[in-house]
Amino acid sequence: MLMTGKVLRFDEVRGYGFIAPSEPGEDVFMHANDLLDEKYLYHEGSEVEFHLEMGDKGPKASQIRLVYQPSSHRLPNRPVFSDGSATAERPAAAASGEGTGAGRFRTELTEVLVASVDSLTAAQIRQVRERVVELAREKGWLTV
Length: 144
Fold this sequence. Notes:
Blueprint: E1 2-11, E2 16-21, E3 28-31, E4 47-55, E5 58-66, H1 91-96, H2 102-116, H3 122-139
Antiparallel strand pairs: 1-2, 1-4, 2-3, 4-5
GO molecular function, one term: DNA binding
Protein name: DNA-binding protein
Region (Disordered): 77-101
């Protein structure tokens, strides 16, 4: 039976955890061998879809996959700042470098990444952020 639920806890090192099903009932055991996505992506509160089976010790999940919710915080085609304006809409400020420096851009980008993908680690955010800043400089989107 296909079900949904949220990860209560998952120990990536030990390779197991538990899911709280959306429908009332007891918690469901989950094992790393039954994950369809990379195990580092499963965190407390992650919404999952799974097949419910009865194991030797109770309910067990199989074919577990993450359910990604649509987000209103997706990265836009052009950098957008917290006031909602894109760099292309602010040519005078962009030309002068006023308020569009790499520092501010990094801050805004970090906020977007954290709000968009809650499973990113700090190291992953730093890697993505630095590459995007580098690309923005190459394309002339950042003048500072």
